Amino acid sequence: MSGLRSFVARRLLLGALQTVAVVLLVFALTEALPGDAAVALAGDQPDPARIAAIREAMELDRPAYERLVDWAAGLLHGDLGTSLASGRPVSQYIADGFGPTLLLAGLTVLLLIPVGFGLGVLAARHEGGLVDRLISSATLAVYAVPEFALGVLLVTVFALRLGWLPPTAVGYGTDLLGHPAALVLPVLVLLARPVCSLSRLVRAGMIDALASPYVAQAARYGVSGVRVRYAHALPNALAPAAQQLARTIDWLLSGVIVAEALFVIPGLGTVLLGAVAERDVPVVQGLAVVFGALTVALNLGADLVAHRLAPRSGVAA
Questions:
Q1: Across the chain, which distance is largest between two alpha carbons, in Å?
Q2: Distance, CA of 22 to chain centre
Q3: Second label for 212, Cα 20 to 30 Å away, from 67, 140, 149, 160?
Q4: pTM, whole model, 2 decimals?
Q5: Which residues pair with 89 in a beta bridge?
Q6: Residues 209-263: tens digit of each pLDDT
Q7: Rounded to whole angstroms, how far apart are CA atoms 161 and 262?
Q8: Phi and psi at residue 89, in whole multiples of 5°?
Q9: Sign of torsion, CA 191 192 194 200?
Q10: What does the pLDDT look like over 36-49, one tens digit per residue?
């Protein structure tokens, strides 16, 4: 128990340091962007007075370290800044886009866990057999297809040729749950590659676990094959799979830009693309910090789960 508390303390400290590093890195990268944000926001024929007013509003006339201190202090109080393009709080942009992204992520994970783990376990049970070869070949082939190409293919077949599903979410706004048909193709695109990587990872972990000495010892003691597979081998195979699942959830919650752009879904990825196009630096900074904090939190949770499932795996803090 003391070892678990020590591990949790180290990971929490590391997570806090990583979050601070994310804040510093985001500010440094936005400062290093080429060009003048004030000139970009002023339009095609910028007026010097307008440029000066924008620079003053953005506080670009102040030293960078002062702006960093003020911005970081605002983050500690939950203030992500104000959009330069619309004057709305950045937190409102995130709140508007988080709903569709969370819905897509939730549906994808809801299908990913049973399908990915189920295919991995099934392939491991039939290692070297026909079922294993079919699953491995199919997952490798699907993983090789880029998301954009897969999305275009699905739209062409199921929306344009067969007419079974809508090609985009245009006209539905953020009420995607009320129009489930508009979610089918985006979820399939988002599900395809994570299922392949997760199932192959589970398969490899199960095969290694089933070949380990403690599984052989359990079999010698007369433990049933089902119990050996699911009570002894599977938990150790789940440790790396839990970390892969956390990375997938982080990727989904950070705004799946390709799927949202292809199917015109107003999620976080679309918000980020719009902010970049408008050179709306506070929105870009706020989204980047939120994405970075989500990454740190999810990886921390995955490490804790992996340590709990397989404490001998040596997950390093």
A1: 84
A2: 16
A3: 140
A4: 0.73
A5: 82
A6: 777 776 667 667 666 666 666 666 676 667 677 777 777 887 777 657 778 888 8
A7: 18
A8: -65, 145
A9: positive
A10: 666 666 666 667 77
